[in-house]
C-alpha cells in the first residue's frame, strides 16, 4: 500500500500540481496589470489585479505541494521484516534493510523507464520503520498524507468554483474571466460555451 501511494504521489500527483502552479504563475504575471474588483463575501470591496488574485491560488497550491512533500518521506518507512506483530520473529537479520534498498533501486529504475526525460519531483527512499509495532498497528503517516490531500482538494475545489463563478455568463453572469471554449454549448442556448477551467 505504501509503495503504490508513494509512487503515485511522487510521480503523478506532485508533477500535475506543479504543472498547474506553473500555468497559474504564467497567467499571474501576464495579468498583473489587469485591474478588477476584489470582493469580500460576494460584495464589492476594493480594486485588485487579476494577477494578485491568481497569486493567492498559486500560494495556496504551493503550500499544499510543500505539505505533501514533507509528508511523503514518512510513507516510505515500511513495516517489512516485522512479521506478524512487529517482533521480527523468524525473519532473517538485515532482511528489512536489504529489501528497502532493493525497493528504492527498483523504484528509481522504474521511474527512469517510465519517465525517461524528466527528473523526479522528490526521490523515493524506502527505509525500515523505526518501530515495527507502531507501523503494523497504525497507519498514521497515511492518515496525515490523506489530510494533505484533503487540503489540496479543497484548494482545487475553491479555484474551480471561483473560475466557474468569475467566468459565468456570457450575457448575465460576471464574465470577469473569459475562458477558452472547450466544446460547443447547447443547441437551445446558442451563446453557451462549455469551458473547463482546469
UniProtKB/TrEMBL annotation:
InterPro entries (alphabetical): Fum_hydII, Fumarate_lyase_fam, Fumarate_lyase_N, L-Aspartase-like
Gene3D superfamilies to which the protein is assigned, alphabetical: Fumarase/aspartase (Central domain) (1.20.200.10)
Enzyme class: lyase
Protein EC: 4.2.1.2
Molecular function GO terms recorded: fumarate hydratase activity
Annotated Gene Ontology cellular component terms: mitochondrion
Pfam families on file: Lyase_1
Domain Fumarate lyase N-terminal: from-to ranges: 3-194
A single GO BP: fumarate metabolic process
Name listed for the protein in its UniProt record: fumarate hydratase
Primary gene name: FUM1
Amino acid at each position: 500500500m505504501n509503495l503504490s501511494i508513494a509512487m503515485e504521489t511522487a510521480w503523478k500527483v506532485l508533477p500535475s500540481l506543479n504543472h498547474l502552479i506553473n500555468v497559474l504563475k504564467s497567467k499571474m504575471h501576464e495579468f498583473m496589470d489587469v485591474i478588477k474588483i476584489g470582493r469580500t463575501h460576494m460584495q464589492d470591496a476594493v480594486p485588485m489585479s487579476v494577477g494578485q488574485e491568481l497569486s493567492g491560488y498559486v500560494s495556496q497550491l504551493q503550500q499544499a505541494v510543500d505539505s505533501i512533500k514533507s509528508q511523503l518521506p514518512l510513507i516510505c518507512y515500511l513495516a517489512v521484516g516485522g512479521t506478524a506483530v512487529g517482533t521480527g520473529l523468524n525473519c532473517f537479520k538485515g532482511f528489512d534493510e536489504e529489501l528497502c534498498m532493493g525497493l528504492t533501486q527498483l523504484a528509481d529504475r522504474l521511474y527512469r523507464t517510465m519517465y525517461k526525460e524528466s527528473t523526479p519531483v522528490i526521490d523515493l527512499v524506502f527505509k525500515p520503520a523505526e518501530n515495527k509495532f507502531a507501523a503494523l498497528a497504525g497507519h498514521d503517516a497515511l492518515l496525515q498524507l490523506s489530510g494533505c490531500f484533503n487540503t489540496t482538494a479543497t484548494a482545487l475545489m475553491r479555484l474551480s468554483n471561483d473560475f466557474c463563478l468569475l467566468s459565468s455568463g456570457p450575457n448575465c453572469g460576471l464574465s470577469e474571466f473569459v475562458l477558452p471554449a472547450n466544446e460547443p454549448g447547447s443547441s437551445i442556448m446558442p451563446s453557451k460555451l462549455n469551458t473547463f477551467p482546469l
